[in-house]
C-alpha cells in the first residue's frame, strides 16, 4: 500500500515537492531578471541604488522594469496559493495520475505565462494564467470538500 | 483519542483545510473581479492587452482598477501568512474550539474586509483588517512558543 | 532516534516553526510601520481613509510610504517562498546543524534587509537580500532532488 501522507515515500507528495521547487526556481530566476533589466535600462527604485552608478536614475515608471514587476506580482498572486493548497490536496489522497496532471498543468502554465508576459504575446498569456488558476481552483475545491464534509 | 497531526481525521486540521480553501476561493474571485473591472472601465495594464479592443487603453492609474489591486495586495500580505502559520498552529495541538475561532475570525474578517474595501466603508475595513491580523498573530505566537521552548 | 516528520518533537521542525514565526512577526511589525508612516506623513491610499482627518491627503506617491511598501513587497517575494519550501526541506531529513544554519541565515538576512532598506544603506541591503535568497534556493534544490530522484 502506498503511503498517503507527507513523506517522500509517497509518490504524490514527492511529485508535489518537485513541481513546487521548479515553480519556485522559475520565480527566483524572474527576481534575478528584474535586477538584470534594471541594470540594462539603468533604472532603479531607490536613490541609494544609483549612487556611484553613472547614468543610472531612480524612477518608478520604466516600462520594461514595470512589466517584469507586474509579472512577478502575478506570480505572487498565484504561486503561494498553489504551494499552500497543493500540500493540503496531497493529504486528500488523490489518484496519483490525476494529482500529477494538476501539478504539471500548473507548473507548465506558469512557465509559459512567464515567457508570454515577457514577450507580450496575447492571448497566450491569458490562456496560461487561466490554466494555472483552474488547476489551483480544482485542488482548492477538493480540499474544501475533504475538510468540510 | 483524536489524532492531532496533518490528517483529515483530525477535526482541527479538517477545519483549517476548509477555512483555508474558503479564503483562497475568495481571493480567486477577487482576481476575477480585477479582470471584470478592467473590462468595465476599459483600462488594461499592457499595450498587447488592448489590441483589437476598441476604446480600451493601457494605463496604470484608473482609480477603480487600482482600488481592486490594492485590496488584492492586502490579501497577499495576509492570506499566505495565515495559510503557512495555520498549518504549524494545527501541529501545536490546540484546543479544537479555540482553533476553530481563530480560523473563523480570520476568514470572516477577510471576507468583510474585501466587501468594505470595495464599498469604501471605513472604519469597518480597518477593523476587519485588524481582526484578521490579530488572529494570525495569536497563532504565530503560539507556534513560536511551541517551537522555541 | 530523532523523529524526522512534522512534529514539535523533531528538533529540525521545531526550529523551522520558531524561525518562521519570527520572520512572520517581523513582517507584521512592518505592516504596522506602514500605518505609522502614513499617519506621520499624513498620506493615505484611499479617499475614505482621510475623511475627518484634517491635513491628511490621499496620494500614492509619498516617498517615505512607498519605500516601506517596496520593502513589504520584497518580503512578499521572499518570505512565503521560504515558509513553503522550508516545510518541505524539513521532510527531506536534513542534518539538524545544516538546517539550523539555513533558517538562521534567512531570518537574520531578512531582519537586516528590513533595517537597511528603511535606513537606505547600500550595498548592505543587496547583500542581505542575496543571503536570504541563497538560503532559500539551497533548500529548494535539496527539495527538488529529494522529490525528483
TrEMBL record, chains A, B, C:
Q: EC no.? A: 2.5.1.18
Q: Which UniProt keywords apply?
A: Acetylation, Endoplasmic reticulum, Membrane, Mitochondrion, Mitochondrion outer membrane, Transferase, Transmembrane, Transmembrane helix
Organism's domain of life?
Eukaryota
Against SUPFAM superfamilies, the record matches this protein to: MAPEG domain-like
Subcellular location(s): the record lists: Endoplasmic reticulum membrane; Mitochondrion outer membrane
Gene Ontology cellular-component terms listed: endoplasmic reticulum membrane; mitochondrial outer membrane
- Keyword check for Cell membrane: no
Catalytic function, reaction form: RX + glutathione = an S-substituted glutathione + a halide anion + H(+)
Membrane-crossing residues? 12-33, 76-92, 127-148
Q: Enzyme class, one word?
A: transferase
Tell me the membrane topology, using the record's own terms: Multi-pass membrane protein
Q: Gene3D superfamilies from the xrefs?
A: Membrane associated eicosanoid/glutathione metabolism-like domain (1.20.120.550)
Q: Does the keyword Protein transport apply?
A: no
Q: From the Swiss-Prot or TrEMBL record, what is one GO molecular function term?
A: glutathione transferase activity
Q: What does this chain do? A: Conjugation of reduced glutathione to a wide number of exogenous and endogenous hydrophobic electrophiles.
Subunit structure, briefly?
Homotrimer; The trimer binds only one molecule of glutathione.
Q: Which family does it belong to?
A: Belongs to the MAPEG family.
Protein name per Swiss-Prot or TrEMBL: Microsomal glutathione S-transferase 1
Amino acid at each position: 500500500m502506498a503511503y498517503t501522507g507527507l513523506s517522500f515515500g509517497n509518490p504524490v507528495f514527492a511529485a508535489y515537492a518537485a513541481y513546487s521547487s521548479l515553480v519556485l526556481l522559475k520565480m527566483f530566476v524572474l527576481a534575478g531578471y528584474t535586477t538584470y533589466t534594471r541594470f540594462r535600462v539603468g533604472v532603479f527604485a531607490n536613490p541609494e541604488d544609483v549612487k556611484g552608478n553613472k547614468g543610472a536614475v531612480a524612477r518608478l515608471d520604466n516600462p520594461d522594469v514595470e512589466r517584469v514587476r507586474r509579472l512577478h506580482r502575478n506570480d505572487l498572486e498565484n504561486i503561494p496559493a498553489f504551494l499552500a493548497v497543493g500540500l493540503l490536496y496531497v493529504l486528500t489522497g488523490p489518484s496519483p495520475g490525476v494529482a500529477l496532471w494538476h501539478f504539471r498543468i500548473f507548473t507548465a502554465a506558469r512557465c509559459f505565462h512567464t515567457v508570454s508576459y515577457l514577450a507580450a504575446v496575447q492571448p497566450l498569456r491569458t490562456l496560461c494564467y487561466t490554466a494555472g488558476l483552474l488547476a489551483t481552483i480544482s485542488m482548492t475545491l477538493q480540499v474544501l470538500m475533504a475538510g468540510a464534509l
